[in-house]
Every structure is written in structure tokens, then in C-alpha cells.
């Protein structure tokens, strides 16, 4: 009996061990997706083909058969959820799909409860995170990754404002939110326009008409795949597929057109110039072989669509699950489910929730899935920490000339390139924009130049530009006699800059103010910020509080606050006698005295005994004679004709220079100079005197808020006439001690005033610019145009045309010594003196040389030749020449008398 019992137990243990060690004959997987959809029509045959290939492959699962249970979600969250329950009743170990992000959210919750891994090949909603749904895995990329590529594409072409159109579901909202986050990093603005889930052509038309009221013309379209391409058909009907527009599409468009069984030329014609993204699928022999099988499947009628990237990913998803199950079975040998007590307690007859079992080792299978690392049809299959597949990047496609062209590639490692992205995985790096490159793109309208991407206005709705209706200083900007004609210096600058903007800018000037008082410029800029005006053109100072609410162009005029005050006579300086001449004039005059001294000595030395004697005496005589001519006290007289000729010219020049010096010095000592008890802004603040300012400008805010001057000391003034009256009255008679205003106004005021002047230097630095709405692209283009005007000198010419009709006030102010005499005024006299002096010296030298030659000839006739070297002969001649020059003229004449011996004459002592 004991032996029989032992034998029974032994057999029982063997049977249990055999059963436990035996691999299961089959394993169930489920799939929930929409059959009749662009993605579903490619995914369904692909999934079935994958199951077929796995069951035929002896290298995987080792005899265990994969059984597939599929349910149609019909693009409905409720139907999809019921389908998920139905496949889970079959005790599936994994759920594949769905492609809809909304349905994926619901199934992910169910999968979490039953611990069944869910692997989606098409749900791209960024909010399907691993933290919230730990059993959710993606064999495609999240839209956050795609929107990074889209934002980089927008940044690559420099667009700063876009319109995003999306379907108002989980995928659409969250995808565009991810795009918004990426564009924010590039300081770009996004306008979001949404369509309902079941939109029709009328809704598309209304939305596109609404978008025309916005400035941007760069559209990012993020919809669900649509084989009829209704969106772009409506855009074409509205004539929005021309060169004023840019159309960018996420991968829904590439998925759609890749799925066309036969390329529909009519559909593609509506897409001319559209640029889109497509998941990059590297070429491989496995992919080519599968596509060949796919064409056979199409011929048999088992597939009604061309293959797209999501179909390839669906095929790889099944293989990913199969590889993981194979490893799971190798480790755990069996697949077990356990009952859920909470579901068992729910007594329901229809739903039969009690059939739902928890996958006991679901976490283990999930880990096996996440460890997958192989190459499939869609590329390398490996998961990152977010449980998304490591993407190979995106193709940048361009639909042009009825064909789909790949113009480049994008990856998060290298950015844009015309070469396919590297298949090796790596962490994202900061790539330089300089290295980015794409092939030429044909944009809507057939142009290859980068579209502007926005419109400022059209003729139906021109820009409304606010301009100050000034009551004073009207040369800057104002309305002409209520004629609705606006003119002025600022207007001319705007019109010239507008010509350099590379597109038409329809506009309409709108005067701001009543014309009786100068308007408040803070209110004008505030109206631009509040969209009452599209822009403001005028003498608008660029100050901090205004830059916070509007964007300014490049300054077209430099300005700053200055002090204007009355002037009085200044005390004479100890060195005032030097002021009539400039430094150059003094130097040239002094050099002229020295030159005359030397020339007169040369001309008079041979004939005038007063210019002979010891060297020291001759030097003193030479310079005393020259400088005494200034005071007409010279005792020496000139004897030679050439010396007298030079003296006549020199005395004439000296007379002119002396008279000019006297007149200039008299003027300097008698005219009023710019001086005042106020020496600068600090002394003005400390004086407690009333201060005038121009009403409407930022002067008041600066004086009260920055310099803390009490408002009671500030007197508003409107016109130049009020300026003059207040300054003449002075602080003790109801006027002001000084006026603080911007430099351009002050220069215009001082043009016709001689009793007032600018004290010190500008104590603020600012400029005038044109105000635009925040982030207006026109501000950048107008700034570029203003810089071009400055470089070409056109800004200066406009300024002279308005303010330099009688001489520029700025030039007068910069000339600190208007009574000084400059060398340029006397260069003719000095030239005359130089010519006469040079001519006299030339005649003198010619005469002396002629005499020396005669002397040498006579000497050779009477003297016997001596044998000397040529060098010695030359040096002797030179020394003899200088000795000859030093001889008195009377002695020279005697040498040439016939009765006298020249040799004996030359032996005479020198006097």
C-alpha cells in the first residue's frame, strides 16, 4: 500500500513538472483600431502579415502560436473602449493600438488596471506619458518630438508669427500646445485656430476667412489624415495657395498622400508649395521585400491602400511584442492570469466583467518589451526613458510640380541636413544654425525665394498710422490747415524708408490731437499698444516706459534733453588776445616772419652794410628787422631792388592781417558769449527757480520721476513764442530761469535767437523712432530701411531740406569760436608772398651764379693750371662760390674792371 502511494505521488510530480516545463501552445494578443481610416487601412493588413510571419518563423516562440483578436474602434472612444474589454476577455497578454489618442487614453486606463502592456504605433498625444500610464508604450514618436522639428523649421526660415490650425481633440490640442512651448523658446508668436472633430467644408472656409484678419501668413496645419484633402481644397478655392502664404503640415499629410493607391493628380494640385514632415524610414532590403509582398497583397484585394510609415510601424509593433513574449516564456515558462476580486463582486449579467483577468506577470512582459533592440521595417527599434521609440528623425517634403520631393532631413542630433540622419542613437546636442541646410523649396505660387510669411495690410484694410497733430514746431509733423494732408520732417523720413521696404505697405494717416495743443505722446503710444492704431509716426522719443508696451524702429534722429537759458557778457580772459587767430593761423604767421627775415638778409647782405658784421649781430639784425615791420619801427632800410620788392608785398600782407586781427579782437571783446549763472542740470535743480518744458513730451515725466523736481516748479510751454517770452521775463517776473527740452526742438528755436543758448551738454541720450505693435515684423524692416537711409546720407539730406534753409542750427552751435580767423581766409595772400619771395631769391641766385662763372673764367685765364684731383677741385669750387657770395657787391664790381687784377682783388681781406 505504501509503495503504491509513493508511486502515485511520484507520477503526479512528474506530470506537474512536465506541464510546467512545457511552453504554451498559443498566446493571445489584441488589437483595437479603426479599420476604415487612412492609418487603419494600412495597419490591418500589416498586423495580420506580421502575425502570419511570426507563426511561420521557427526562430521565434519555438512552436507557440500567436493568436490575434482585433476590434474596430470606429473612431469612437466608447466603441473603442468596449472593443478593448472584448479583447481582454480573451486573456490577451498585450494590446496593440489604437491610432486615436483619445481612445488610447481610455484603453491605457484599462490596461493599467489589468496590468496588460499596451503598445501603440500611431497615438502621438504628448500627454500619454509613462508616469500617468506605466503600461503604455509607443513604437512611434510623441508629437512633442515632431513639434520640435516643426519649430526648428519655422526658426530656420526666420518666421516670428504663425497660425496653427488643429482639430479640437486630445491629439490636436496637446500637439499644438507642444508647438507653442517650442516656439516660445524662439520668441515666436502663435495664433491658435481650431476645427471641430467632424468639421466640414463650410467650417474650414469660415476659419480660413477668420485667419485672413490676422497678420501672419505662415500656417501650421495639424489635422487627422484626410484622403479627400478637404482643407487644402478649400484653401485653394479661397485663393490662399499663392505666394503670400506658407503652408506647413505635420505628418498627417505625408501619411495621407503616401496612402494613395494611385497618385491623384487633382488632389496634389491643391498641395502645390506645401511643406510637410514625414517620419524618416531608412531604406533596407527587408523593407523592399515587404513592399514587394504588399503589392501582391494589393493585387489580390487584401489591401486597399499603399503602405505608409504607420503601417510599417504597426508591423514592427507586432514583432516587438512577439520578441518580448518569446523572452518572457523562456524565463517564466507559462502565462498566468488571476481574478480581480473587485470585478467579481460586480454582479452584472451583460458585461460579464468577471471574465476580465489580471495578467499576473504583466510588468515582466512590459520590461521585456522595453528591452527590445532590433532592426525592423521602420528602422531601429529601441525605447527611450519616456517609453517612446528612438526616432530616426523626419523627412522634409515639398509638394511641387505634381510630385513629392524630399528637400532635406531633420534629427534632434544634427538638425537640418540634405543627407539622411545618422541611424546611430545619441543624446541631443546643441547644433549651430549656421550648419543647417535644406535644398531649395518651391513655395506656393511657384517661387523659390523665402516668403515673407505675413502681410501688414491690404488695400481693403490699410494700416492706420497715428501722427501727432502738433500746434508748435510744425516742421516736424502736423496736419496742414485741416486739409487731411500730413507733412513734416518725420513724415518724409517715413515715406523714404517705406520705399526701401521690399513690399507694399498700404497706410492711412490719422491725426492725433486737436491742433491747438501739442498731443501727449504717452497716450499716442498707448493707443498703438491697445490696437487703436497699427503704428505711430512722428517725433516720438524712445524712452523706457514706451518700449515696454510697443516696439520701436531704429532711431532716425539722435536727441536728448538740454537746458536753454539767457546769455550775458562773459569776462575777458587773460589770453583773449590769442583768440582772433586759430592755431594754424598763428603758426603760419610766425613762420612768415622768419621766412621774410631770412630772405631779406640774403638779398641785402652783399649791398647793405647794416646786414653785415659778426654772425651774432647779423642774426639779431635779421630778426629785429622782420618783426619791427609789424610796428613800423625798423631803423634798417632795404637797398637792393629785389629786397624792396619783397618788402612791398610783405607790408601789404601785414597790413591786411593786422586790420583783420584788430577787427576780430574787437568783436570778441564786445559781442555776447554763451554763459549763464546756470552751469548744468545740477545747478538748475539746486536753484529752486521755475523751469519751462514743452507740453506733451516726456520732459515732464523725466524731470519729476527721475530728477525729483517738484511739479510746482515746472511751467508748461507750447510754442517758441512762449519760450522766448518766458525766458525774457525771467524767474522773478513770472517767467522761467531755463527751459528743458529735446535737442531738435531747441536747435530750431535757437535758429532765430541770439540772446539764448544751450548750457552744457545733453544730459540724457535718446532718439526718435516709429512705434509699432509688439512683435510687429514691420518694425524690423523699417529699422533696416532707416539704416540704409543713414548709410546713403538721405537722412541728412532730409534734415537739411527742412531745417537748414538759412543754415543749420546745429552747425552754428558746434562753432564755439565764430569770430576766429582761419588760415583758409588768407591763403591767397600767403601764396602771393611766397611766389614773390621765391622769384626774388631765384633772380638773386641767377645773378650771383652768372658773376661767379665770369670770375672763374677770368681766374683761369691769368693763373697757371695746377694739378689737383677732381674731388679737390670740386670742393674748392664750392668753397670759392660761398666766399664769392659773401663778398660785397662793390668788391665784385671792381673785380671785373679791365685795369685791375682779379687775383689781387680776391686776395683782399673780407669785411
Please give the structural blueprint.
Blueprint: H1 2-21, E1 26-33, H2 38-56, E2 65-72, H3 77-88, E3 95-96, H4 101-114, E4 118-120, E5 136-138, H5 143-156, E6 161-167, H6 170-185, E7 189-195, H7 201-211, E8 218-222, H8 230-237, E9 246-249, H9 251-258, H10 265-269, E10 275-279, H11 285-300, H12 309-332, E11 337-339, H13 341-344, E12 357-359, H14 362-370, E13 373-376, E14 379-382, E15 394-400, E16 403-411, E17 415-417, E18 463-468, E19 478-479, E20 486-487, H15 489-500, E21 507-512, H16 521-529, E22 535-541, H17 544-547, E23 551-552, E24 557-559, E25 561-566, H18 583-604, H19 615-628, H20 641-670, H21 681-687, E26 691-694, H22 699-706, E27 714-717, H23 720-729, E28 738-742, H24 743-750, E29 756-759, E30 766-772, H25 777-792, H26 794-803, H27 809-814, H28 827-862, H29 870-886, H30 889-895, H31 902-906
Parallel strand pairs: 1-2, 1-3, 3-4, 4-5, 6-7, 6-8, 8-9, 9-10, 18-21, 18-22, 26-27, 26-28
Antiparallel strand pairs: 10-15, 11-12, 13-14, 15-16, 16-17, 19-20, 22-30, 23-30, 24-30, 25-28, 25-29
Family: Belongs to the glutamate-gated ion channel (TC 1.A.10.1) family.
Protein name: Glutamate receptor
GO molecular function: G protein-coupled receptor activity; ligand-gated monoatomic ion channel activity; signaling receptor activity
Amino acid at each position: 500500500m505504501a509503495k503504491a502511494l509513493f508511486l502515485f505521488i511520484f507520477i503526479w510530480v512528474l506530470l506537474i513538472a512536465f506541464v510546467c516545463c512545457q511552453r504554451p501552445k498559443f498566446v493571445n494578443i489584441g488589437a483595437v483600431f479603426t479599420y476604415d481610416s487612412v492609418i487603419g487601412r494600412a495597419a490591418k493588413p500589416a498586423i495580420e502579415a506580421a502575425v502570419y510571419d511570426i507563426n511561420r518563423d521557427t526562430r521565434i516562440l519555438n512552436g507557440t502560436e500567436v493568436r490575434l483578436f482585433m476590434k474596430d474602434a470606429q473612431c469612437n472612444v466608447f466603441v473603442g473602449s468596449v472593443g478593448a474589454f472584448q479583447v481582454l476577455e480573451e486573456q490577451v497578454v498585450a494590446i496593440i493600438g489604437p491610432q486615436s489618442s483619445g481612445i488610447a487614453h481610455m484603453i491605457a486606463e484599462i490596461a493599467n488596471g489589468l496590468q496588460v502592456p499596451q503598445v501603440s504605433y500611431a497615438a502621438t498625444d504628448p500627454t500619454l506619458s509613462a508616469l500617468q500610464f506605466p503600461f503604455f508604450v509607443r513604437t512611434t514618436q510623441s508629437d512633442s518630438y515632431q513639434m520640435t522639428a516643426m519649430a526648428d523649421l519655422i526658426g530656420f526660415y526666420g518666421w516670428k508669427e504663425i497660425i496653427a490650425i488643429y482639430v479640437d481633440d486630445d491629439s490636436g490640442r496637446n500637439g499644438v500646445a507642444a508647438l507653442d512651448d517650442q516656439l516660445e523658446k524662439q520668441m515666436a508668436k502663435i495664433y491658435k485656430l481650431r476645427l471641430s472633430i467632424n468639421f466640414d467644408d463650410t467650417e474650414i472656409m469660415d476659419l480660413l476667412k477668420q485667419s485672413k484678419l490676422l497678420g501672419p501668413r505662415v500656417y501650421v496645419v495639424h489635422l487627422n489624415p484626410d484622403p479627400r484633402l478637404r482643407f487644402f481644397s478649400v484653401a485653394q478655392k479661397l485663393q490662399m495657395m499663392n505666394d503670400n502664404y506658407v503652408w506647413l503640415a505635420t505628418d498627417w499629410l505625408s501619411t495621407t498622400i503616401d496612402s494613395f493607391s494611385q497618385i491623384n493628380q487633382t488632389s496634389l494640385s491643391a498641395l502645390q508649395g506645401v511643406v510637410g514632415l514625414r517620419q524618416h524610414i531608412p531604406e533596407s532590403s527587408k523593407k523592399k521585400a515587404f513592399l514587394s509582398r504588399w503589392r501582391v497583397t494589393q493585387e489580390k484585394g487584401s489591401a486597399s491602400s499603399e503602405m505608409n510609415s504607420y503601417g510599417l510601424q504597426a508591423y514592427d509593433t507586432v514583432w516587438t511584442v512577439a520578441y518580448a513574449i518569446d523572452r518572457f516564456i523562456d524565463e517564466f515558462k507559462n502565462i498566468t492570469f488571476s481574478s480581480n476580486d473587485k470585478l467579481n463582486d460586480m454582479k452584472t449579467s451583460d458585461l460579464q466583467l468577471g471574465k476580465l483577468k489580471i495578467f499576473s506577470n504583466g510588468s515582466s512582459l512590459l520590461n521585456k518589451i522595453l528591452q527590445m533592440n532590433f532592426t525592423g521595417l521602420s528602422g531601429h527599434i529601441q525605447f527611450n526613458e519616456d517609453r517612446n521609440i528612438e526616432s530616426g528623425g523626419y523627412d522634409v517634403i515639398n509638394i511641387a510640380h505634381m510630385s513629392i520631393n524630399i528637400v532635406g532631413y531633420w534629427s534632434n542630433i544634427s538638425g537640418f541636413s540634405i543627407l539622411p540622419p545618422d541611424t546611430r542613437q545619441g543624446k541631443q546636442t546643441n547644433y549651430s544654425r549656421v550648419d543647417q541646410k535644406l535644398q531649395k523649396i518651391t513655395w506656393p505660387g511657384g517661387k523659390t525665394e523665402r516668403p515673407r510669411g505675413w502681410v501688414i495690410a491690404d488695400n481693403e484694410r490699410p494700416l492706420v498710422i497715428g501722427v501727432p497733430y502738433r500746434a508748435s514746431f510744425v516742421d516736424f509733423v502736423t496736419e496742414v490747415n485741416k486739409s487731411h494732408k500730413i507733412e513734416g520732417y518725420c513724415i518724409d523720413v517715413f515715406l523714404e524708408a517705406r520705399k526701401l521696404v521690399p513690399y507694399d505697405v498700404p497706410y492711412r494717416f490719422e491725426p492725433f490731437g486737436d491742433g491747438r495743443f501739442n498731443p501727449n505722446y504717452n497716450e499716442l503710444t498707448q493707443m498703438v499698444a491697445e490696437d487703436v492704431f497699427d503704428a505711430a509716426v512722428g517725433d516720438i522719443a524712445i524712452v523706457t516706459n514706451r518700449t515696454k508696451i510697443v516696439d520701436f524702429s531704429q532711431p532716425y534722429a539722435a536727441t536728448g534733453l538740454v537746458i536753454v537759458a539767457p546769455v550775458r557778457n562773459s569776462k575777458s580772459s587773460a589770453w583773449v588776445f590769442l583768440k582772433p587767430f586759430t592755431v594754424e593761423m598763428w603758426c603760419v604767421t610766425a613762420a612768415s616772419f622768419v621766412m621774410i627775415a631770412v630772405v631779406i638778409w640774403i638779398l641785402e647782405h652783399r649791398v647793405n652794410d647794416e646786414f653785415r658784421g659778426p654772425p651774432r649781430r647779423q642774426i639779431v639784425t635779421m630778426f629785429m628787422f622782420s618783426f619791427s615791420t609789424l610796428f613800423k619801427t625798423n631803423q634798417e632800410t632795404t637797398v637792393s631792388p629785389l629786397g624792396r620788392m619783397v618788402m612791398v608785398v610783405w607790408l601789404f600782407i601785414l597790413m591786411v592781417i593786422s586790420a583783420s586781427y584788430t577787427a576780430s579782437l574787437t568783436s570778441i571783446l564786445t559781442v555776447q558769449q554763451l554763459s549763464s549763472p546756470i552751469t548744468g542740470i545740477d545747478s538748475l535743480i539746486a536753484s529752486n527757480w521755475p523751469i519751462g518744458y514743452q507740453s506733451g513730451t516726456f520732459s515732464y515725466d523725466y524731470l519729476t520721476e527721475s530728477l525729483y523736481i517738484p511739479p510746482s516748479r515746472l511751467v508748461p510751454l507750447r510754442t517758441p513764442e512762449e519760450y522766448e517770452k518766458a525766458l525774457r521775463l525771467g524767474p522773478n517776473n513770472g517767467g522761467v530761469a531755463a527751459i528743458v527740452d529735446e535737442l531738435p526742438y531747441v536747435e530750431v528755436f535757437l535758429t532765430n535767437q541770439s540772446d539764448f543758448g544751450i548750457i552744457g551738454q545733453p544730459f540724457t541720450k535718446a532718439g526718435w523712432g516709429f512705434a509699432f505693435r509688439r512683435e510687429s515684423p514691420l518694425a524690423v524692416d523699417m529699422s533696416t530701411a532707416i539704416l540704409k537711409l543713414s548709410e546713403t546720407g538721405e537722412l541728412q539730406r532730409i534734415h537739411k531740406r527742412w531745417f537748414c534753409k538759412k543754415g543749420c542750427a546745429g552747425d552754428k552751435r558746434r562753432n564755439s569760436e565764430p569770430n576766429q580767423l582761419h588760415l583758409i581766409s588768407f591763403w591767397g595772400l600767403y601764396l602771393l608772398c611766397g611766389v614773390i619771395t621765391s622769384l626774388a631769391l631765384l633772380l638773386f641766385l641767377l645773378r650771383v651764379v652768372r658773376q661767379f662763372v665770369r670770375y672763374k673764367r677770368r681766374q683761369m685765364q691769368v693763373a697757371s693750371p695746377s694739378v689737383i684731383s677732381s674731388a679737390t677741385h670740386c670742393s674748392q669750387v664750392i668753397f670759392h662760390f660761398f666766399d664769392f657770395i659773401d663778398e660785397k657787391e662793390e668788391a665784385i664790381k671792381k673785380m671785373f674792371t679791365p685795369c685791375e687784377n682779379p687775383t689781387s682783388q680776391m686776395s683782399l681781406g673780407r669785411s
